[in-house]
Amino acid sequence: MARIKLKDIRHAYTANPASDADYALKRVDHVFEDGGAYALLGPSGCGKTTLLNIISGLLRPSEGAILFDSQDVTDLATEERNIAQVFQFPVVYDTMTVYDNLAFPLRNRGVPEDEVARRVREVIAMLGLEGQARRRARGLTSDEKQKISLGRGLVRADVNAILFDEPLTVIDPHLKWQLRTQLKELHHRFGHTMVYVTHDQTEALTFADTVVVMYEGEVVQFGTPEELFERPSHTFVGYFIGSPGMNLLPARVEGRTAHLGSQTIELPGAPGALGAKRLELGIRPEFVRLGREGMPVSIRKVEDIGRKKIVHVELEGENIAAVIDEDLEVPAEPRVSFDPAHLSLYADSWRVEMEARP
Ligand SMILES: Nc1ncnc2c1ncn2[C@@H]1O[C@H](COP(=O)(O)OP(=O)(O)OP(=O)(O)O)[C@@H](O)[C@H]1O
């Protein structure tokens, strides 16, 4: 297994990129630690597959270098990088049995047969394929075939990394949760460096220790699931992560006071110089208090989501979502306040740190 360093990587599909807009990857400079579980998360077209292909060697970056531990692999082909890959659609040999499909990557490298048997049995057990081990792959469902593809990725102990590109796309929804959990267990057990591409936040947050959120060719946050929730670095992370996402409200700021229309809100600290940047206050729906205290609002819609309710209100012409307990009564003249510890400020979409009060 290896530590993967992406050093000032940029990539453009056009021949003579002139501006940032011409780059599918604007600049990526991050380290994926040895044995870590990473998810690349973002909407379609943000550059996830481009980055994964740069790690696997399918694509050579226009600029920058990629290192596996201290070895510069930028110019090495995929086969020379010693990585395993799992794609969206199953890659299995139909005429082979499940067992032989899983044994193939090991036998190919001359691993002794007793070691093959030990590894393959372990993977078969983890994926719950015991009943199918001696069956040919041809007759299996696409779920089962994709489990074999996952198994083939996981069976080798000596790989530098395992790369997954939306591996659960063909999996039946009720099995997805089970497989995600199994992958997490396999990661703990085998300790591979894993990079998992997805546009699904639940997949990313359940699988990864570190989530790499991408947006328009940039990494906008590289953090734990808790950090993405508590301290989104960019407004995109705020509204992409969470359900519903973070409320973002245009604001003016003077000293420690934010103005939302005619309302004022005390900030938890003083932001530094903000210049002429576009400012927004961010507050997650979980930290909006709805009651008799605070700023007057009008109710737009109430959604029941089990033990909680999402109440959509209007404040100074802006829509805000609040998540409240199911049994909390909404007063006749509702007001909202924001938990100051969970207020964020964004300038031109990027988070601004606020100096704590003395
Ligand atoms: N071979 C290519 N030639 C030209 N442009 C490309 C090529 N592959 C990707 N792009 C462009 O690069 C950008 C990033 O694409 P990429 O496939 O990396 O995004 P993604 O986040 O993986 O999206 P998806 O989830 O849809 O696969 C997009 O604007 C895409 O149109």
Automatic annotation (TrEMBL):
Q: Which family does it belong to?
A: Belongs to the ABC transporter superfamily.
What Pfam families has UniProt attached to this entry?
A: ABC_tran, OB_MalK
**GO molecular function terms noted in the UniProt entry:** ATP binding
Domain ABC transporter stretches: 4-241
Q: Which organism is it from?
A: Chelativorans intermedius
What are the alphabetically sorted keywords of the record? ATP-binding, Cell membrane, Membrane, Nucleotide-binding, Transport
Q: What is this protein called?
A: ABC transporter ATP-binding protein
* Family annotation (CDD domains): ABC_Carb_Solutes_like
Q: Which PANTHER family match?
A: ABC TRANSPORTER ATP-BINDING PROTEIN (PTHR43875:SF14), MALTODEXTRIN IMPORT ATP-BINDING PROTEIN MSMX (PTHR43875)
